[in-house]
Sequence to fold (284 residues):
Amino acid sequence: MSDGSANPDNFCYRHPNRQSYVLCQRCGRTICAECQTPAAVGVHCPECMRESRQNAPRTRPAVVTSVRRLAQPGTPVVTYAIMALCVVVFVAEVLTGQLVGSGSPIVDALLYYPPYTAIQPWRMLTSLFVHGSILHILFNMYSLYVLGPELERLVGRGRFLALFLLSGLGGSVAVLLTSPNSAVIGASGAIFGLFGAYFVINRHLGGNSRQLIIVIVINLVIGFLVPGIAWQAHVGGLLIGALVAFALVRTRDRQKRGIQLLSLAGVFVLLLGATFFGVQLSSG
Fold:
């Protein structure tokens, strides 16, 4: 009878002085307890484990995957960013005091009050991200969620941001010109601008706008009938949004990119002129 312990195949290939009868499942070499790594079937030697890890598909952290997904061309990043900013500001309002009135420093710092225009003109835009109640922000964010992604994909991220801000500014200018003693908050003016833009673009593409017109009319009527709603901002935002969309659809060719930028700048200059006129009218 032969002595199996004398067979060199019964010793670990990495530690020749250690006897073992366990083989690597992949390469078949003898490995001792120190060199064994449990696998789905049997055990693997260190070299096979290293090779397996190198060939295994690399998984990215969930955060990296989410960021890359957001960076894809079709993702409405601007819409989601605006919604997130509004929610963050609203949470800050809740944590710092009352949602409206002098109890909330957030509201007091960001609302738009026409007499402040000459010294704090940025309030004409910061007021877009402040809301007075849970129903207020829910209605505006739902409208933004419905309209924003589709419009952002149609016109592009930069143009959509310009559309939103110019419409919001148009709403503030309308308040300045028609109700100079009213303090306003909320993204409604900008959202009505999205309504106006969607109507113009839909008509340009040959779509049926009957239902959209009904929605716009109903929301405008609500603004006129319900107390505490700045219907002036709704009308101003609607008109400027439609004007911006008209400029975009008329200059959609790549060769007209310069004319498009000049058109958007022209809308901004028009609003600046109206703001200057409103300030002079109020002070006079």
Notes: The first strand starts at residue 37 and ends at 38. The chain has eleven helices and two strands.
